[in-house]
Amino acid sequence: MPLFSTLIGRVARPLAAAVCLLTVTVAEAQVTPATPPVYPPPAPPASDTTAADQVGQDQEFATPSVVGMGPSKGLIFHYERMPRFNVASDGQAVGLQDYKSQAEKNARLVIKGYIPFWNKPHLKMLLGINYEREEFKFRQKPTGYELYDNIEDKGLKTLGAQLAIIRPVNAVNWYIFRLKGELSGDYTSQGVNVSDYLRVSSEFLYGWKRSPTFSWGVGLQLGYTFGRQSIYPAVLYNRTFNDRWGVEAIFPARVTARYNASPKSLFFAGYSVDGFNYIIKLRQPLRRDDNIVLRTLELRETEVKFRGRWEREIYDFLWFGLEGGYRYNYAFDAFDRTNNDRVKIVDSKLAGAPYASVELFIVPPRKFLKKTLNK
User: What span is annotated as the signal peptide, if there is one (predicted)?
Assistant: First the structure.
């Protein structure tokens, strides 16, 4: 944990300043879960109107958010851990044997921050930054297996930035565009070749706000959710059925049921599909069956999580999240990054395992919301 603590210190300082801006500029977008019955339908939230004093009047601009969703997150610290699980790999390159062992540790640290640098009723633009680190520890070290020795010594890192644009068109229609670039792999602080590690993803969704409690949309996503960069359809569905129950989904990547226990306590249950794509620089080159020498591998990881989550306010602007469930590993395979024939160099199977995570996140303070809405 000393490494994780150092990383948190380095990343948190610049992000903390951004949170001050976040609390002021996104205050109008804050939505508090409803505790009274929602019939008759509640007034549209401030984020859906041209000015705060129009709440309860005709809705001017539509957004994908609905009444009852949790607070907007500005700065997020997330730590996740899995216990021991079996690992089995089938080597498919010359000189690379099969391998079976156990991973004694698989942990992830995630730090994210969001800065809304343009927040108008007809146009909202957010800049996001993130740092992630995934670590493995195997039962034997060195394992004698080139891939695992590499990722245990260096860890797998992701450093990224994204631009998100939310454009309300009118009282019904909206669209979202997001562009994200990340450096992802086993690079170190001694130097990073951007062209080697750069990964780009994007998405576009067009939707309809049918009521303050129902919004949906369709679109396309380009990314690594399923390990390999690909384009796949996406359906957004946000709906609050009553003062307690709702659904938040971007199918097929994530579907979650929501239960509003109170304005300060929310429960979630569902599944998510997460994909990671890392570049691994090999210290000892491998040789393919066709005698091509490999010095770099592309590791594609895809997992499905069945999860339950609890989010709770600690104090005004500070919340925590506890999450647990079961991780099913669909793929953990290595490819020659220069080929397009989808031939695996290492075909791995990571056994399913339970997991748990803890999260702290900062949201706009309630006093800023009151000041904004009273203007």
Answer: 1-29
Looking at residue 30, what is its pLDDT? 39
pTM of the model: 0.80
Block residue for tokens 């369709």: 218
Sign of the torsion formed by the C-alpha atoms of 301, 307, 310 and 311: positive
DSSP symbol at 349:
E
pLDDT digits (tens, 9 = 90+) for 155-167: 899 999 999 999 9
Instruction: Provide the percentage of residues in the chain whose pLDDT is more than 90.
Output: 53
**Rounded to whole angstroms, what are the CA distances from 205 to 101, 111, 167, 226, 317?**
43, 26, 10, 19, 30
Cβ 45 vs Cβ 67: under 8 Å: yes
pLDDT classification of 314: cutoffs 50, 70, 90: very high
Q: pLDDT tens, 26-42?
A: 333 334 444 433 333 43
CA distance 182 to 276: 11
Tokens of 139: 């039962």
Does residue 301 carry a pLDDT above 60? yes
Question: Which of 327, 330, 309, 294 is closest to 259 using CA atoms?
Answer: 309
The DSSP-derived string for 229-283 is -EEEEEEEEEEE-SSSEEEEEEETTEEEEEEEEETTEEEEEEEEEEEEEEEEEEE
Residue 65 has pLDDT above 60, yes or no: yes
- Of 275, 333, 271, 272, residue with least CA distance to 302: 275
Measuring CA to CA, which residue among 203, 29, 45 is closest to residue 124? Answer: 29
Phi-psi region of 342 (alpha: psi -120 to 50; beta: other; left: phi over 0): left
Do 182 and 162 touch, CB atoms closer than 8 A?
no
Give SS3 for 48: helix
How many residues belong to the chain? Answer: 375
Our measurement of the distance from residue 20's CA atom to the centroid of its chain's CA atoms, rounded to an integer in Å, reads 22
- At residue 74, what is the residue type? G
Segment 77-96 mean pLDDT: 86
